[in-house]
Design brief:
- The structure is a single chain.
- The protein has a single domain, classed as TIM Barrel (Alpha-Beta Barrel), CATH 3.20.20.
- It has 8 helices and 8 strands; from the N terminus they run E-H-E-H-E-H-E-H-E-E-H-E-H-E-H-H.
- The longest helix has 18 residues.
């Protein structure tokens, strides 16, 4: 069985905020995407970045794929701040305003961007079923949203498998992303469960050699998929 290559999206939330550009440059271009976590202090109990950082990233790295993850309550107001921020993809949480989810995803796509829908560890995959045909990415949070440096919740691997099964059964093409607690010791399990896009922040940027660490994660995934006969 043949499947797409696994992409890696280091989260700048795991970088030193006073040396963020230097941290990204330390990846030496070995990343596929750059992941930007936006937290509002309400949907999650933390504050992080805003649209100005997304714009600055686009100016600094004009060819980058900037993956914006909105962990915010007021999608009706917050989304408009990011549609012209330079984001390549915007992911919103299904839990934030469920009745607006389809409309929000449509707004993102109408702006010419890719659209993603996320679920936290306590949210069943079933809530995404109505929008699986209109998303480019389904994000499984593998930690409680809001803080970096947490350990991966093993049970979230089953959610990833379920999304992969729904994709195959429905003939969908969305990517499956996992975010939270991923590192070189568990990234192979995530890939085998169906993860297409690996988000890793603390593990990568706390390493003394981020580029080499990212390469080690890639090697672990490539080896695991090859052994399972499902490499790209």
């Amino acid at each position: 069985m043949k499947r797409r290559a696994v992409l890696f999206a280091p989260s700048v939330l795991g970088a030193d905020p006073l040396r963020l550009a230097e941290a990204v440059e330390s990846l030496q271009g070995r990343q596929d995407w750059l992941h930007l976590d936006i937290m509002d202090g309400h949907f999650v109990r933390n504050l992080s970045f805003g649209p100005h950082l997304a714009r600055a990233m686009r100016r600094r790295w004009p060819d980058a794929f900037i993956d914006v993850h909105l962990m915010v309550d007021r999608l009706d107001t917050a989304l408009s701040l990011f549609l012209d921020s330079g984001a390549s993809l915007i992911t919103v949480h299904a839990e934030a305003e469920p009745q607006l989810l389809h409309a929000v995803l449509s707004s993102i796509r109408s702006a010419g961007l890719k659209a993603g829908a996320a679920i936290g560890p306590a949210t069943p995959v079933e809530v995404l079923r109505p929008v699986l045909g209109c998303i480019d990415l389904a994000l499984v949070m593998s930690v409680t949203p809001g803080f970096g440096g947490q350990g991966m919740i093993e049970e979230t691997l089953e959610r990833t498998r379920e999304l992969a099964q729904l994709r195959a059964a429905g003939g969908h093409s969305y990517l499956i992303q996992m975010d939270g607690g991923l590192n070189k010791d568990n990234v192979a399990r995530a890939a085998l469960a169906g993860c297409d896009v690996v988000v890793a922040g603390s593990a990568v940027f706390s390493s003394p050699a981020p580029a080499e660490y990212l390469e080690e994660m890639k090697s672990k995934v490539k080896e695991a998929l090859a052994d399972a006969g499902i490499g790209s």
